[in-house]
Specification:
The protein is of the alpha/beta class. The protein is 35% helix and 22% strand. It has a single domain, classed as Nucleotidyltransferase, domain 5 (2-Layer Sandwich), CATH 3.30.420. It has helices at residues 2-5, 32-42, 59-71, and strands at 14-17, 23-25, 28-30, 49-53, 76-78. The model is unreliable at 1-8 (pLDDT under 50).
């Protein structure tokens, strides 16, 4: 997953979710509990966050990230290959 997220521009808020559920925010590993704070600190005026997951990632991992972003009222754009 890390190799895939490196091809995405880091000037926008990008979240990658690896097949084991590891979360990356602009290429840096981050915990789910810190994700929203990291986004707000790095991109305080972001119009959306781009979320990409490995095709083998469980829905539970993806839905936890989406729920955290929705709770913080951060708009989400899902990215596919």
């Amino acid at each position: 997953m890390r190799a895939q997220t490196q091809t995405v521009a880091v000037d926008k808020p990008n979240i990658g979710i690896a097949k084991d559920g590891t979360i990356y925010f602009n290429e840096h590993r981050v915990s789910l509990s810190r994700l929203v704070d990291e986004i707000n600190q790095t991109f305080p005026k972001a119009s959306a966050v781009y979320v990409r997951a490995d095709q083998r990632t469980t829905w539970a991992s993806v839905s936890q990230v989406i729920a955290a972003l929705n709770s913080a009222r951060i708009p989400i754009k899902l990215v596919s290959k």
